[in-house]
Design a protein that fits this description.
Blueprint lengths: L1 H22 L1 H25 L5 H36 L1 H19 L6 H16 L1 H35 L6 H39 L5 H11 L5 H14 L4 H20 L1 H10 L3 H45 L3 H8 L5 H8 L1
Helix pairs in contact: 2-3, 2-6, 2-7, 2-12, 3-6, 4-5, 6-7, 7-8, 7-10, 7-11, 7-12, 8-9, 9-10, 12-13
Length: 356
């Protein structure tokens, strides 16, 4: 009876926790974004604190530098972005007619019949509506951005005390291991943010420049979209190619093939240079793990879930491989293997830092 009551209480507690998390999932996601952001700028803050700067002043200095950079970027891009967005919205009917004309000619030549007029009109209409409502979207993003800055500041100020308290709850013989695991989780989350920023910038600039050279409409918007899509591993590479490819049909089908080849070449170069250097070395997740994390995160919480899926999966991987697996090995009597597995750092770049 005691066992049944204990099991029932555990199930009830888990159900209550899941219910509460479902009610506050937006807040949890916002906090996770803030933690990833804070861990991403932690190396800059620590560099200033090593120069005897007070930690709050170091955080504020990094914030001011980032905001100044964003302000300068917005000042340079806001006018061309607005102009291109208005031009793109006004030319949507023309793009729609050109694409449908090309598709109908293709139907005639290949002798098939597929009515996609309604689908094309619906898709373009939805995209046009997004352009018209972009102001409200930007306002919501700005509000969340301010909250992320505030929560990130509080995390950087108080995280060390929270870590020390959490580690103090672990048996003394395992406290050094717990410290190292928390350090690796923080490194992976922060490294993911820095890697995504570098990768998105590289893809966005390359796509924008290539779109301008190829004479596509709205090259700045295409570059920004490709850069933002590049924040989503694997899937983002496909998403970033679609708008330039579709807009190329407004020039001609042969031009669309050329644009597709150029965009795929950019993604191929990125996948074999920037991604292995900055993303794989920081996150160290296998490709299957990345895909599964994206599918689960995207299914549960859409775009924001997909963006957070990789750093969360990386943290879970650290816990599984450095905590759960050693526990299983130890229970099987494989003591040396359990010890080696627990103290084996998983992130390549972190290994290099430990070696130096």
């Amino acid at each position: 009876m005691r066992t049944l009551v204990t099991a029932a209480l555990i199930v009830l507690a888990v159900a209550v926790v899941v219910f509460l998390l479902a009610q506050i999932v937006s807040i949890v996601l916002l906090v996770l974004v803030a933690i990833v952001f804070a861990e991403g700028i932690r190396p800059l803050v620590e560099r200033l604190t090593r120069m005897r700067w007070p930690q709050p002043l170091a955080i504020i200095t990094v914030y001011v530098a980032l905001l100044a950079f964003l302000a300068a970027l917005i000042a340079l891009l806001v006018q061309p972005i607005v102009s291109e967005a208005q031009q793109l919205a006004s030319n949507f009917p023309t793009y729609q007619r050109n694409f449908l004309s090309f598709f109908h000619n293709l139907e005639t030549q290949l002798h098939f019949n597929v009515d996609i007029s309604k689908q094309i009109a619906s898709a373009l209409g939805a995209a046009q509506q997004v352009l018209f409502t972009i102001g409200a979207t930007i306002f919501g993003v700005l509000v969340n951005f301010v909250l992320v800055l505030v929560i990130g500041f509080l995390w950087l100020v108080s995280s060390e005390r929270l870590k020390k308290f959490s580690i103090s709850l672990v048996p003394i013989r395992h406290q050094s291991l717990a410290t190292d695991i928390l350090r690796e989780i923080g490194f992976r989350m922060g490294g993911y943010l820095r890697a995504v920023a570098i990768n998105s910038l590289a893809v966005g600039v390359a796509t924008g420049v290539a779109s301008a050279i190829l004479g596509l409409p709205s090259p700045i918007l295409l570059g920004i979209f490709a850069g933002l899509a590049g924040a989503i591993p694997i899937v983002g590479a496909v998403l970033g190619v679609v708008p330039p490819f579709l807009l190329a049909f407004t020039i001609g089908p042969g031009w669309a093939v050329l644009v597709l080849g150029v965009m795929l070449f950019i993604q191929l170069v990125d996948a074999n240079t920037v991604v292995p250097i900055v993303l794989n070395r920081a996150v160290a997740l296998p490709a299957l793990g990345v895909v599964l994390a994206l599918l689960i995160g995207g299914t549960l919480q859409g775009v924001i879930g997909a963006l957070l899926a990789v750093p969360v999966a990386a943290a879970i991987q650290v816990i599984i491989l450095r905590v759960l697996v050693p526990v299983v090995y130890y229970a099987q009597g494989r003591y040396d293997e359990a010890y080696n597995t627990a103290y084996q750092t998983l992130t390549p770049k972190l290994k290099e830092q430990e070696g130096s």
